[in-house]
Amino acid sequence: MQCFYHPSVLSIGTCKYCQKGLCKKCARTIGEALSCKGACEKRVAVLNEAVAEEEKPEIDARTALRRNAILYLVYAGLFLLGAGGSLTLSQSEAGKVAGYVCLGSAAALLCGAAYTWSTARRIPPEVDRET
């Protein structure tokens, strides 16, 4: 590809904003991108800021894992309530089976909560900030 402004010179890259081929004389480095010297520098800087802002996670991994562990505990509590009600109030065999199913589900959710919480604790804070 040739330089847009100097057609006899090979380009070293393209402007991030206008996509024109640029030689060493015409290119200006803005962050990790090239821009047309004197023409697209501000626009490329704005694009770089927008991309950097989009790459930031809304919440970090440890926060998400802790939130999930708390949700598992809430659901486990609901299943335990269901199991308790079903086992104590039910006179039928099907009601008792439903109670035991609820107990098993609650146990699985409690194990999931413990595993998720322990995973969150193993993530170093400095790694979490980089993502």
Strand order of the largest sheet: 1-2
The amount of helix comes to 55-70%
Radius of gyration: 29 Å
Global structural class: mainly alpha
Low-confidence parts lasting 5 or more residues at pLDDT below 50? none
Strand content: 5-15%
Spatial separation of the terminal alpha carbons = 36 Å
Count up the helices. Answer: 4
Largest sheet entry? 2 strands, antiparallel
Q: Count the E strands.
A: 4
Domains (count): 2
Average the pLDDT over all residues and give the rounded result: 88
H/E element string?
A: EEEEHHHH
Shape: rod-shaped
Question: Which helices and strands appear, and what pairs or packs with what?
Answer:
Elements (H helix, E strand, L loop, with lengths): L12 E2 L6 E2 L4 E4 L2 E4 L4 H14 L6 H29 L3 H30 L2 H6 L1
Antiparallel strand pairs: 1-2, 3-4
Helix pairs in contact: 2-3
